[in-house]
Amino acid sequence: MVDIMNKQFEKSDDELRSRIENSLQTAIVEQCRKEVMEEYFYKYEVQLQNIRFITYMSDAELERSIKLTIDLLEEMRVINNGGMDEKEFRKKVADIEKNCEDEFMQQLYTWDILCSQYIAKIISEIDKVRRVGGAYAMLISNPGLKNAIYVVYEVLVDNFDDETLYCQSAFFMLRAIMRMHSEEVKGLSSKKGE
C-alpha cells in the first residue's frame, strides 16, 4: 500500500501537457464555439455547472487561457507535494469553519491556505488575458475563479496522478476562467455531459 502522506506527484511532462492542452482546445471549440465575430475572434456559449454564459475570445486568448489552466493545476500539484495533502487540507478547512462563523471570512481564510505566490501571479496573468481589472476583478471575477480553484483542489488533492480526473478538472477550470469576462444568460441550449 502506498503511503499517501509521503507520495510525491510528478509534474506533467511536455508530451502529457501538450495532449491535455490539445484536448481542452478541441472540447471547448466543439462544444462551445458558436459564431465567428471577426477573423480569429469567436462567440462561445458555455455552461459551468448550472450557470450558462456567453463570452468572446480570440484564438490567442483561448490558447493562453488553456496554458494558464494547466499552470494552475501544476501549481496545485506543488502545493499538494509540499505537504497540503487531503488530511492536512481537511484539517485546516475544519479549523477555519470551527473558529469563524462568518461564511465570507471562512472563504477568505480558506483561500489563504491555497494561495501561493505563484498562484497569485497566474491569477494576475489570467486577469490580463480575460480583460478584467480593478474593482471588477477584485469583487466579481477573482472570487469566482478562487472558488473554482478551491473546488478543483478539493477534488484533485492526493489524486494528481489520476489523468482522467486531472483532465476533467482542467476542463472545469478552463470554463471558470472563460466565465471571468462573460454575460450570464438564460435559455442557452444545453448539451449532454456539460
Key terms:
about 190 residues; alpha+beta; four-stranded antiparallel β-sheet; 4 strands; globular; disordered C terminus
Question: Would you kindly provide a written description of the structure presented here, covering whatever features stand out?
Answer:
A four-stranded antiparallel sheet has the order 1-2-3-4. With 194 residues, it is of the alpha+beta class. The C terminus is likely disordered. It has seven helices and four strands; from the N terminus they run αβββααααααβ. The termini are far apart. A hairpin with a 2-residue loop joins strand 1 and strand 2. Helix 2 packs antiparallel against helix 5 and helix 2 crosses helix 7. Helix content is 62%, strand content 12%. The chain is globular.
End-to-end separation in angstroms reads: 35 Å
- Number of H/I helices: 7
Strand order of the largest sheet: 1-2-3-4
The chain-level structural class is: alpha+beta
**H/E order of the elements?**
HEEEHHHHHHE
Q: State which percent range the strand residues make up.
A: 5-15%
How would you sum up this structure in a few lines?
This protein is α+β, with helices and mostly antiparallel strands and 194 residues long.
Helices and strands, with pairings:
Blueprint: H1 14-32, E1 33-38, E2 41-48, E3 51-58, H2 59-81, H3 86-99, H4 103-114, H5 117-129, H6 134-156, H7 163-179, E4 183-184
Antiparallel strand pairs: 1-2, 2-3, 3-4
